[in-house]
Specification:
Elements (H helix, E strand, L loop, with lengths): L1 E3 L3 E4 L7 E5 L9 H11 L4 E5 L2 H9 L12 H11 L5 E6 L1 H15 L5 E5 L24 E6 L7 H4 L8 E6 L10 H4 L3 H17 L9
Length: 221
């Protein structure tokens, strides 16, 4: 793993056919245990993975103060700036963990229509705040045109399989459900029979196959 310009954590081959840019969730940094595990699994499948932090999270590192995250809508420009700074040479997929994926989903269609990204990857999408299933964050997902893959645990407190089945989501969205997975995609082995490593393997292999097929899709007119 390397750090480029103090901005990005980079893993995977430099000549990979696909680059994935990932942002972190609301409460944990880009090198959290869950992001390290996901990025490592993707890189092992010959995918180039870049991670970055929003300014508020980087500020926590320097100040040691745990200030609350800003509203997701206010982070769109930072994500756009990260895409420009990364300057991926080949096909680019944007996304992230929880809030990071949500921010990416807000800017995806404009970038996809302009041919700047190939797809969107969300690792544990926050469909609603925990304990507040009525506060949905899905309005823009109904009309999303960007090819999207959401990897979601079936018992994720931000959106379970039963809850998400009732939502109106775009046909461009594919969801891979990870049995008994929580918001970090981790299952309880005694309950599900799966381990966290099993689910990471499923995620990485699914993303690799899905990403390989994105080149055959065209942005809508």
């Amino acid at each position: 793993m390397t750090i480029a310009n103090g901005k990005f954590l980079l893993q995977g081959p430099e000549d990979a056919g696909i680059t994935i840019l990932l942002a972190h969730g609301a409460g944990a940094p880009m090198d959290s245990a869950s992001m390290n595990a996901a990025a490592g699994a993707l890189a092992e499948r010959n995918i180039r993975v870049a991670r970055f932090e929003f300014a508020y999270m980087a500020g926590r590192r320097s100040s040691g103060l745990r200030k609350p995250p800003p509203r997701a809508e206010t982070l769109k420009d930072e994500y756009l700036a990260a895409i420009t700074e990364l300057g991926a040479a080949g096909p680019l997929i944007i996304g992230g963990k929880s809030m990071g994926g949500r921010v990416a989903s807000m800017i995806a269609d404009e970038l996809y229509a302009a041919g700047k990204i190939a797809g969107l990857l969300c690792l544990g999408y926050p469909f609603h705040p925990p304990g507040k299933p009525e506060n949905l964050r899905t309005a823009h997902l109904a009309e999303l045109k960007t090819p999207t893959l959401i990897c979601q645990g079936t018992r994720d407190e931000f959106g379970t399989r039963e809850e998400v089945a009732r939502y109106v989501l775009s046909d461009a969205i594919e969801i891979v459900w990870l049995e008994d997975g929580d918001h970090d995609l981790k299952p309880r082995k005694a309950v599900s029979g799966f381990t966290a490593a099993d689910h990471l393997r499923t995620v990485a292999e699914t993303v690799r196959a899905w990403g390989a097929g994105l080149g055959n899709r065209k942005a809508p007119d």
